[in-house]
Amino acid sequence: MFDLVRSYETWMVEMRGLSPNTRRHRRFEMYSLLRWLHDHGTSIETLCLPDLDAYIASRVVVMKRRSKAHVISTLRGVLRYLFDSSQIATDLADAIDGPIIYEHEAIPTTIHRKDIDRVLEIARRDRSPLGIRNYAMLMLLSTYGLRSGEIRGLRLSDIDWRHERIHIRHTKTGACSELPLLRGPADALFDYLKCGRPATSTREVFVQAVAPYGPLRAGLHRVLNHAIQAAGVSLTGKRGVHVLRHSRAESLLGSGVSIKVIGDILGHYSVRGTAMYLKLASDDLRSVALDLPQEVTT
Description:
Elements: H1 2-16, H2 20-39, H3 49-59, H4 65-84, H5 113-124, H6 129-144, H7 148-152, E1 159-160, E2 165-169, E3 176-180, H8 183-196, H9 220-230, H10 242-254, H11 259-266, H12 271-274, H13 282-287, H14 294-297
Antiparallel strand pairs: 1-2, 2-3
């Protein structure tokens, strides 16, 4: 079982060059399938469509539609490898169906600007080194719509104080942006570097609050959720750092900023990546909505 998973991992790296995250999902899916077959007294060599249907039914029983679609898509990749490497005799990848997911069908979760301001105000009052650090991160998240990895990867050399610029390496696309270092984030960063950041040789801006003061590895979701709770703000829908990213896109869109410029700020490669935020302009969509004919409404 483990030998087959390791062979698949090697193939994904050497033949496909897949990202670590994609490889992790596919490794897990292959192991889950092999484990299920073993527990049900069968093997990969005799895998047939009824077995596969039974596995999928047990695997996605409590999942939502989008999660089910992701599992099916990942499983198809596993099955194609198993067929191409002669582990199974029949290509079963196209024989399994998943739920239809329409492009940009979900509306991103956002926070009202007044609630963001309240979260920032409450966070600003915490003058402990940890509080100063968290406030600076929240300012960057809310101002520039950064991803969690972009905050963690920000280095001291990325802040150009003389020219009031900040250099962002976008973790998802690999693109780089040079953005204006606005007064609010600049003040929060300066305060953290002066009063909150411990003495360390680490070149990342934000470091752990306890020794050995290495770069942050995780925790931004926890920082945001704690700040939201402290401010007494209630959210509906998804939670996490991306909520501030969506909110920033919404505010830019509402201010009349073009989709192209919003994409440049957020680090998207193409307009397609930014198009999802058009759904946030609900007031604009209502203004262009057509009235239903009278015979339809009566």
